[in-house]
Design goal:
This protein has 190 residues and is an alpha+beta fold. The chain contains three helices and five strands, in the order αβββαββα. The protein folds into two domains: 74 residues; 99 residues, no CATH class. Helix content is 38%, strand content 31%. The chain has a five-stranded antiparallel β-sheet.
Length: 190
Amino acid sequence: MFRKRKRKTTYKPLSGKLSDILFFIMLSCTTFGLCGTVFWSFTFLKADAVHDWQKTDGVVTGYDFETGLKLHYRNETAKTSTVTRDSSAVYRPLVKYNYRVNGREYRGSRINMVMAWYNSKEEAAEKQKPYPISSYVEVFYEKGDPQNSVLEQGGSSGALILSLISMGILAAGIAAAFIRNKNRNTASPL
């Protein structure tokens, strides 16, 4: 007999400063999330495509390292806002190998499609250990571009995880935009 009344939810408008902070969070999350989602999804698809590549035999001829820079930012003291930039080297292991496709010889050096960077040469060298010099290896190459090759088909799980994290950040940005928009629409004019 008695009907329950639906309770209308009212939202309190955010203060101007809080609204600006929410806008910054929304913009940052959406930008980083979208860029990360596109980049890591593309990387995942590229790494996953290796499973469809052709296979041939190759011989390991040597090792090398690709060197990069890792930047560090830090405050000198807690009392000042002076920021200094410091850097250190990072290393990506390479295994040099030769292989033949249709009678033509090729050279490659990638272990897999999503190769990690390491803080020391010793760490990077651990990834090279399964491939002794002069050993025979399986080489996976792209049929339409035989010089595009790797020694391992894996490497896509890390890209998938980073892609999913990026999608979560993107979702957080969209949620922040929804909350901010909802708050703006329910604010009562004076």
